[in-house]
Every structure is written in C-alpha cells, then in structure tokens.
Amino acid sequence: MRAVLSVVLPLVLLVLVSATPTQHYALQGAKVVRVVPHTLGQLNHLHQLLMQGSYDFWKEPRALGSPVDIMVTLPAQEQLMASLESHSLKVQERLSDVGKVIAEQEAERGQRGAKAMDWADYHNYETITAWMASLAAQHPDLCSMEQVGTSYEGRPMYLLTISKGGTDKPGIFIDGDIHAREWISPAVVTYMVNQLLTGSHDDLLSSVVFYVMPVINPDGYSYTFTDDRLWRKTRSHTDSVFGCMGADPNRNWDFHWNEVGASSNPCSETYAGPHPFSEVEMQVVRDQITRLGNLKVYLTFHSFSQLWMYPWGFTTDLPSDWKDLDDLAQDAVKALTAIHGTHYEIGSSTNTIYAAAGGSDDWAKGVGGVKYAYTVELRDQGNYGFLLPRSQIIPTGEETFEALKVVGSFVKNTYGK
To answer: Pick the catalytic residue: 60, 269, 279, 377?
Structure first.
C-alpha cells in the first residue's frame, strides 16, 4: 500500500490513509526506488516494511543480492529514505515520477480515442470481452465463448474455448490479469489468441484445446482504468475498520493457504482473504479447471520480472517431477529469447522469486492435477515495471507466442491422439 503521512504520525493512521484508493494526482512525485540487501539484517528489515503495508513493493524481498523495488509517494519519501539509510541500504532511483508516467500514458490513450481491439494500446474489460464475442461469431468453427461466472461487482466472466474439430483432446488453460495493474498480461494473452485464430496453426488447433480467460480479476482491472492505475487486489469488501478493500487473488487459493508470503491484514497488498477461495472470481476459475478433465498445462501470466516459474511457491522443496517441468520451460524460454533476445530466469517460484503460498499454479498442480503448471512473469525487469509502455505490447506478444507454440507442440506430441 502507499504511505501518505509523515514519520511523526502513528502507523495505525498510516495504514488508515493508505487504505484509501490513491488518485492519480496523489502519485505526482512518487518514485520507484531499488535497493539490494546484502545482509540478513537488511533483508529482514525489508520484510518488516513489506508486512507493515506502508509502501507498495513492486519487487518484494527475495534473497541476499536480489533487487527490491519500492514505490513511495512524495510525502513518505523522507521517512522511507531514513529507514533504508538506517540499515545502510543504498538507493537507486528507477522511476523519478510515477504520476507523470501515468499521466503521459493516459494522454496517449486519450489522443488515440476509443479504438476497437488492437495491440497498439491497452484496452478496458468491456473492449476485451466484446472482442472475444466477435471472435466466437467470426470463427464458429474454431472457438466458442461462454459465461462461466460473475464477479463480485457483477461483471460477467467468460471462457473462450479454441479448438478445431471438437474438444476431446488434451487441453491448455491460460489466464491473465489475476493482479489488476499488470496490464501487459491480458494484452499478451489476447495477442496470442489472435495469433492462434488468424495464423496458420491448423495442426496445433486440431490436436490441442486452448481454454482462455484473459482477465480473471475484472473488477480490479476495471478499477485501474477508472480510479487507481496501480490497484492490485480484488474489489470485495472486507471487515477492515479502515475500509480496506479486496484480497490478493494469487494468495487466495486453497493449497497451503496463508502459510507463507501472505498477510492476514486486509490493508496489505498480499492479504490472503478471510478464508481460502473467499474471492468469487477465483472460485470461478477453480471451477473451470476442475470441470475440464483434459488439462495438461496451466499457464498464468503476470508481470513483471521476466521469469518462467513452476511450483512450488509455498516451500523451497521441488515437485517430484520438477525435471519434466524444467525441461519444457527451458524449451519454451529458448524459443522466446530467440525472437528479441529477452532473457528469462527459470525455476520454482520460491527459489526464483520468493515464497508465497495460496497461488493459482500451486493449486492447479497440487489439487487440480495439472502436471505442467507455470507462472510467467512478463516484461520488463523494472525500468517501467507495471507501467510498461504500449510500444512493448507487440514485441512481448511475439516472443511469448513462440513459447506458447513450443508448449502446444509438446502437448500435441506427448498427449495427442
């Protein structure tokens, strides 16, 4: 969350104010700074700051030598800098004015005006779902669209099924935007759908079924277009006396729920919710994975950091079949990197980024029975973070689609009839 008070005020008031959705003007002068912990004391201090919920961690504390990115509003910068300096953490500025970047990107979208679905810009939920419906109408032999649920605020949630000649084939489930502010995620997911339907991929579509939900946090995603560009969570009401809203939907899954890397504080960005699957949107996705008995791969797309990760996220231990997951990830990333030279790190979630229980990929493998479950953190590595320029949508989509083709071909060759 974003701190807006000075160091002299009690932390409880800091949490109270940070619970209020931050308007764009409040981000004028906000910075993203990077520190690298080199001692256990420094790492523990950063973990304490994260758990307090007073700052918006764009890259969470992970390990010694691993960068940590923190967004801090202008009024709280003196407080944060003093805190970091007291632990000898050297600060590197990544973004000098978050509000300015958001304003510039909003102005660019305003200059374009309302546009039909394309990949020259980011689009709101209504545009994406209207485009999905048009695909089903234009390609009835290749795809169908069905409403599979309704969000907390009443938005319809849709599943797009893409296949040629029936659905009695091995399946790949793809979702995006579990965290609302990660706009590149649904942009890339929809780009790949478009490539599947408009390119020459008959052989793949004849052997594999693709199930796609580009935005599985529609309320949060919509809120980032209207109120707070950097909103992360869902938009459900909580029992917070401070009015804090929403849960982290990627800490809400019922597999080692809330054991590590999550918070019981409703004002925290990593609030796991009052109980597993408290968020209706995650119930909807869970139910789809459960009812589809042909799934071999689960792919959930996030940003940012350029990582291709597999379970587990709740422990440093690896699944017994980790080598199978790693081999496929290596092949997918090799194809991705060949397009634009983008480097991705590969490994289990805990060992690659940080421990965080209650994630969708852990549940998909540990409960849903999907052998190849992956979380993909898309571009970039912190130059823009969650504010990735629209000019990077197509290049990110191009390289990620090459990885998807590798995964699809693997499923076809391994499980195809």
So the answer is: 377
